[in-house]
Write a sequence for this structure.
């Protein structure tokens, strides 16, 4: 039997007054997910343990069946692994966003939707000015990049704020803080001067697009140790497709094969049919495939109700429908990793609805797939890594 996991990143949320007190999952047209719910097992899973940051790093680690506390790897190190960066024992990797700050307010954690070609040119300029024996910058995708710092393990213990947590809020008091923070604060000041004279920013300004003003380091991580490969842990081969480095990094660190599927992105321009078909084709050589779709989370961070609903509907129509049509014995798990409520524009650590469907699954009475129906079944998987046990029948 084959297995498929569909991760609708950030799709869960809270009731919203503008859409008659429904969540975006309830408002979305999801006939395929609703059919899975009627024919399968629906419940809630706590993917983010108490006291753990409500991030996709913890939540997706849970979904893959690992313990996000005992098996914790700092997100910067996970994303570095995705980019093929090998960390030395005395190096710390941090996510580095290109951001827009105006009048002391975080205007855009995503660099005003900077493109990858633009950001690579910007990172090249920053590298020329900032790279030294301690700092090395690595270009990533869009606004997301990696800063590796050598010889400063104290950076692991600083206090950081993720920029997407403070959209439209003051950055005062949210900069890196703690013993040793001066190193990063000085780098941020020097980067601001480089960005002020960037030719990319001149072109963006001429096109009436926001200038990228700052870099923002956060999510530190060191070289990981001791993660058991998925195939050894579960006795099954696995593959994964995603448009974000976090999931790619988790795949690298757990020995899961990364699928290279053209058109897979982290936004609404994602090729949903291509991603689904490429993933299902991988089942010829693998026992399990993970399809991670970022769109609902990105739209949640933007506070875009219509965009988040559209993302959920696209996953249902173009991904879930194709998974259901797989021509062999199959078991499917669909779920968000964490909620991303529109009101907050960031993640919460609440439990998320899941649906398990397919071979050997007996329905437990849900009428549809959403937060309320999942809660009504009374089934709670806590800790959330237990969803992998349910999927594999272990």
């Amino acid at each position: 039997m084959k297995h498929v996991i569909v991760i609708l990143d950030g799709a869960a949320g809270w009731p919203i007054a503008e859409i008659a007190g429904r969540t975006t999952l309830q408002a979305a047209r999801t006939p395929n997910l609703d059919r899975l719910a009627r024919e399968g097992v629906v419940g809630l899973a706590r993917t983010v343990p108490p006291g753990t940051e409500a991030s996709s790093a913890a939540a997706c680690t849970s979904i893959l069946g690992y313990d996000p506390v005992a098996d914790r790897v700092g997100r910067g190190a996970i994303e570095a692994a995705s980019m093929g960066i090998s960390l030395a024992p005395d190096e710390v990797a941090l996510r580095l966003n290109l951001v827009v700050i105006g009048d002391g307010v975080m205007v855009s954690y995503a660099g005003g939707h900077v493109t990858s070609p633009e950001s690579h040119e910007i990172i090249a300029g920053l590298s020329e000015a900032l790279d030294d024996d301690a700092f090395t910058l690595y270009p990533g995708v869009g606004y997301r990049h990696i800063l590796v710092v050598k010889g400063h393990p104290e950076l692991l213990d600083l206090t950081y704020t993720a920029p997407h947590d403070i959209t439209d809020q003051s950055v005062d008091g949210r900069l890196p803080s703690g013993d040793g923070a001066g190193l990063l604060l000085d780098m941020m000041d020097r980067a601001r001067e480089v960005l002020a004279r960037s030719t990319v920013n001149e072109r963006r300004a001429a096109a009436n697009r926001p200038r990228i003003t700052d870099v923002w380091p956060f999510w530190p991580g060191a070289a990981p140790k001791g993660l058991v490969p998925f195939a050894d842990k579960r006795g099954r081969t696995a593959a994964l497709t995603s448009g974000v480095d976090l999931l790619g990094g988790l795949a690298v660190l757990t020995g899961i094969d990364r699928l290279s599927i053209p058109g897979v992105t982290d936004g609404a321009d994602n090729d949903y049919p291509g991603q689904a078909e490429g993933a299902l084709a991988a089942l010829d050589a693998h026992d399990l495939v993970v399809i991670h779709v970022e769109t609902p989370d990105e739209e949640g961070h933007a506070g875009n109700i219509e965009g988040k609903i559209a993302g959920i509907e696209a996953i249902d129509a173009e991904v879930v429908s194709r998974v259901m049509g797989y021509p062999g014995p199959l078991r499917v798990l669909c779920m968000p990793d964490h909620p991303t409520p529109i009101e907050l524009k960031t993640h919460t650590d609440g439990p998320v609805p899941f649906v398990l469907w397919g071979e050997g699954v007996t329905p437990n009475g849900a009428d549809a797939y959403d937060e309320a129906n999942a809660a009504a079944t009374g089934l709670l998987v806590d800790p959330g890594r237990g969803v992998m046990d349910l999927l594999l029948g272990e």
About this structure: The radius of gyration is 21 Å. Residues 2-73+225-392 form a domain with the Alkaline Phosphatase, subunit A fold (CATH 3.40.720.10).
